[in-house]
Amino acid sequence: MAEPIVLLLSGPNLNLLGERQPEVYGTATLDDHVATATTEAARHGLAVEHLQSNHEGELVEAIHGARGRVAAIVVNAGALTHYGWSLHDALAAFEGPVLEVHLSNPGGREPWRHTSVIAPVASGTIAGLGGDGYRLALDAVARLLGADGVLG
Ligand code: DQA
Fold it and tell me: What is the pLDDT of residue 152?
């Protein structure tokens, strides 16, 4: 049987990781984070499909395409986290677990970053732990899916 798929979504500007404000986001590239997620997923018998987009509609369409096909979604929506209500609504129509990830801790930054429109439709949020967040998110997804037989 094919491995269950976890859709990893990366929002605007995350393609610039490694160059973009390394003092805030670290020096690892997005490819590095995708590799971290993929390795952790494989440990649990899961496969990762990744999409980065700077366009909200493209992310919405990827979430639509995940319905009935993908087991879980891990999303770092970048700045769309704070105002991308169409992502909220699309994720609300997705049946599986949703994990929100941030490299930085938006709650400790500018006030406009304190609100997440993703959080109300997420099973959980991992923030402020840098690239480790991707490993932890995939581990959490595996547990939520019972992929290890850890949880039903
Ligand atoms: C981010 C936090 C957001 O506030 C910001 O707009 C980003 C990255 C993070 O991973 O820390 O682009 O999602």
Answer: 41
- 71 CA to centre of ligand 1 in angstroms: 24
pLDDT of residue 148: 59
- Are 51 and 7 in contact by the 8 Å Cβ rule? The answer is yes
CATH superfamily of 5-145: Dehydroquinase, class II (3.40.50.9100)
How many CA atoms, within 13 angstroms, populate the side-chain half-sphere of residue 145? 27
Task: Confirm whether 102 is a catalytic residue.
Answer: yes
Going from N- to C-terminal start, the domains of the chain cover: 5-145
pTM passes above 0.85: yes
Comparing CA positions, the residue from 46, 50, 45 lying closest to residue 15 is 50
25 belongs to the catalytic site: yes
Which amino acids bring their CB within 6 angstroms of ligand 1? 13, 76, 78-79, 81, 102-104, 106, 113
Token pair of 101 as six digits: 């990830």
pLDDT, one tens digit per residue, over 102-115 is: 999 999 999 999 99
Task: Assess whether pLDDT exceeds 80 at residue 99.
Answer: yes
